[in-house]
Amino acid sequence: MSEHAIVRTTDVTKSFDLGKHTLEVLKGISLTIVKGRYISIMGPSGSGKSTLFNMIGGLDKPTSGKVFIDEVDIAQLDAYELAWLRCRKIGYIFQTFNLIPVMTALENVTLPMTFGGTGNDEAVDRGMELLRLVGLDDRYNHKPSELSGGQQQRVAVARALANTPSIVLADEPTGNLDLNTGEEIITLLKKMSDELEVTIISATHDFKMLNVSDEVIWIRDGLIDKIEQRDELDISVGTIG
Ligand SMILES: Nc1ncnc2c1ncn2[C@@H]1O[C@H](COP(=O)(O)OP(=O)(O)O)[C@@H](O)[C@H]1O
Ligand SMILES: [Mg+2]
To answer: What DSSP string describes 74-119?
Structure first.
């Protein structure tokens, strides 16, 4: 069970056709992510992290290569199956929170459950439970504009967990937050990874993320530079300071 590959990519490339020329963003990414771990995809801005994130999350298609979720080649899924996967199996967290402005915190969290077919009473109960988990149950009736950035991202974490996904994908979850608030979100994600049976995959260039990661996949220029496990990391974290 512990060695189960929840995500696997084989030689994934992605190019964008820019008219005059083609931009090769991912140049052959092969990786295996084991269930239940906290993975950081680390690399400088422009290295292809978000592009890879979109491939793993089934939000975009590779130019070549394959993405397997739970050993299913997602290119083989029809539109309905892919929508089901994106709704039920994966939770998404974005740099800019992406909450729906006219909805309350609770409504934002229950929305994916409604899409997933959960009844209203059950969705509200679970929504409140998730808001409690992220420490925001007292703000359930607040709209995003009435919440701080850190609080909005907590709501987004709760929303990502709405349909008990096996994977949470976070793209620069601390990118719009100050140092302390960013640390709070990292601690929260770590707690989710420890307490719930969820695999966290976070694309980031925030070195604070190194402290909580079980594994770091370093990306440079569309290629994997190196993959480091927790015990190897302690050394490089020390040198970053
Ligand atoms: N839809 C797109 N069309 C054209 N170029 C893109 C597109 N998406 C990303 N890129 C380019 O791909 C490169 C990698 O982008 P991205 O994956 O967003 O990097 P990162 O998330 O690591 O900062 C950048 O040069 C970016 O401009
Ligand atoms: Mg990015």
So the answer is: GGGS-HHHHHHIIIIIEEEEETT----TTS-HHHHHHHHHHHTT--
For 33-65, the pLDDT digits (tens) are 999 999 999 999 999 999 999 999 999 999 999
Cα distance from N-terminal residue to C-terminal residue, the chain: 35
Task: From 51, 52, 206, 224, give the residue whose CB has the most ligand 1 atoms within 8 Å, as the site to mutate.
Answer: 51
**What percent of the chain has a predicted confidence (pLDDT) above 70?**
95
Residues 78-84, mean pLDDT to the nearest whole number:
95
Q: Which domains does the chain have, with CATH numbers?
A: 35-56+92-240 (3.40.50.300)
What is the per-residue DSSP string for 165-225?
Answer: -SEEEEESTTTTS-HHHHHHHHHHHHHHHHHSS-EEEEEE--GGGGGG-SEEEEEETTEEE
**Nearest C-alpha to atom 27 of ligand 1 is from which residue?**
46
How far, in Å, is the centroid of ligand 2 from the Cα of 8?
A: 20
Torsion of CA 205, 206, 212, 217, to 10 degrees: 10
